[in-house]
Each structure stands twice: as structure tokens, then as C-alpha cells.
Specification:
Blueprint: E1 3-11, E2 16-24, H1 30-35, H2 46-49, E3 55-62, H3 65-85, H4 89-108, E4 110-118, E5 126-132, H5 136-146, E6 156-166, E7 169-176, H6 181-187, E8 192-198, E9 201-207, H7 210-221, E10 234-240, H8 241-253
Antiparallel strand pairs: 1-2, 2-10, 3-4, 3-10, 4-5, 5-9, 6-7, 7-8, 8-9
Helix pairs in contact: 3-4, 4-5
Length: 256
């Protein structure tokens, strides 16, 4: 049946105290039947989920047919509205391409995503995350066409296209005009956002210059063919407290 697993471990394997929370849904049970969820084949990010990092969360669900049809209807309804509100032919083309990806993803009927804090405190951390999508080639092309226009937005201090490449995924960097204090303390004063689309997913990285290398490595090492228990519908969160204690101490001391 369903089970929720929560535990605290103290040991040397991951460098100290850890908290893990996990909820898995048995496809034969009443809870899954009530939401009509079925198994994923395997998480798109299975290889990354086993990596012992300061924090990891992941969600993997297959939507029931009724919900999938509702999503498709919602996408189609919003598509017509968005196209009609576009200012010109170029805008309508962009909207059309974006909704092609949204429709293909809704048709697949899966929610498969992960987020991870990577690093070794007291060094600043890097956030990486991914959302599995369908039609990533269309979205990648659209992003390359649209993103340069964001350089004039008041929230953007700097925008650099194609700062990195991970396989067939082009990575772009956006430096915001300001970042919240909490984010600067986690990721560093010179943190930026890194975006990429390809390899069946939308990718995001947040951090200072080395975040580009971290995100590139994560994308390159992704292997959807790895046998994994992530094939079951699940919600999972893992936190290694010792890493956060070290980071908290360094921030409290004002050290870098």
C-alpha cells in the first residue's frame, strides 16, 4: 500500500545528520485509485536523484486520462486567447510555438521534476532543477528567438546567450538587477540564472560562475535509461542537516 517514510540518520556516509522524507503510492491501492494515478516508466532525472547533496526534492506522477483531457482543453483555451492578444505576427508565431510544447507535454500527461542544492558548505551553493517536457526542440528554438528581447527588461542587468553547451542543450545566462538577501546568502553576491532547453527537459541553474559548470555536468550525466524505483508515483524530499549547519555557521561569522 501507500507508505510515508521519514527518518533521521547520523553517520559518515553523507557527512553527518540527515533527514529524509518520502511518500510512495502503490498503484493498486485505494489512494492511487482515488486520484487515478499510474506509474511513471522511470524518472527523466533518475541518475541525479541518487546523488547525496545538501537538499533534493522530486515529484513523479502520471495524470489520469480525465485530468489529461482537462489539461489539454485548458491549454487549447489559453492558446486562442494568447494568440489573439499578441501584438503582431512575430508575437503570434512565438505564442504558437510555446503552446505546441505545452500541448505536447499535456498530451504526455506526466509531471516529472526535480530540484537540488549542490555544493560543499561553507562554500556557496548552486541550485539546479529540471522539468521534463515534450517538444523540447520547439521550445529551445523559441527561447533562442525570444530571450534576447529580455535584455531591455528593467529586471535584467545582463543577458548572455550561449554561454555554455551541454550536449545539444545551449545554456544562457541572465543576471538580475537585484537579488533578495536570502538568495545572495545562499548562492553568492554575484549569482545569476542559467537556462537551457533540450534533452527532454527545461533546465535551471542558480549560482555564481561555477553554476554553469555544475548545470552542464548535471545535464551531461543525465541518463533516463537507469533502472530506478523512481518509476513509482512519488513525492520525495531529502535534507542533509550537517551541510546547512556548516553553511549557517559561515554566514553567521561573515566568512566566505
Amino acid at each position: 500500500g501507500e507508505h510515508v517514510v521519514a527518518g533521521i540518520s547520523l553517520g559518515e556516509e553523507h557527512g553527518g545528520l540527515s533527514i529524509d522524507w518520502e511518500m510512495r503510492l502503490d498503484p493498486e491501492s485505494w489512494l492511487v485509485d482515488s486520484i487515478q494515478a499510474s506509474s511513471l516508466t522511470t524518472s527523466h532525472f533518475a541518475s541525479q536523484l541518487s546523488s547525496p547533496e545538501p537538499a533534493t526534492f522530486s515529484v513523479g506522477l502520471q495524470f489520469p486520462e480525465e485530468l489529461r483531457q482537462m489539461l489539454l482543453c485548458a491549454v487549447e483555451a489559453r492558446r486562442e486567447e494568447a494568440i489573439n492578444n499578441a501584438e503582431d505576427e512575430g508575437g503570434r508565431h512565438v505564442v504558437e510555438q510555446l503552446f505546441k510544447t505545452a500541448q505536447a507535454t499535456a498530451e504526455a500527461g506526466k509531471l516529472d521534476l526535480f530540484g537540488q542544492m549542490i555544493g560543499e558548505p561553507p562554500e556557496r551553493l548552486v541550485f539546479v532543477g529540471g522539468l521534463a517536457i515534450s517538444g523540447d526542440d520547439v521550445l529551445a528554438q523559441t527561447l533562442a528567438e525570444v530571450l534576447p528581447y529580455a535584455a531591455n527588461a528593467p529586471q535584467v542587468a545582463e543577458l548572455d546567450m550561449n554561454v555554455g553547451q551541454a550536449g545539444n542543450v545551449a545554456i544562457h545566462r541572465v543576471v538580475p538587477t537585484e537579488m533578495r538577501e536570502q538568495e545572495r546568502r545562499l548562492y553568492g553576491d554575484d549569482a545569476a540564472f542559467y537556462f537551457g532547453v533540450g534533452d527532454g527537459a527545461v533546465w535551471l541553474g542558480v549560482g555564481e560562475d561555477h553554476a554553469l559548470d555544475v548545470l552542464t555536468e548535471v545535464i551531461t550525466n543525465r541518463d533516463s535509461g537507469v533502472a530506478s524505483s523512481e518509476g513509482e508515483p512519488h513525492f520525495r524530499f531529502s535534507l542533509h542537516l550537517s551541510d546547512w549547519v556548516v553553511l549557517g555557521d559561515s554566514l553567521g561569522d561573515g566568512s566566505e
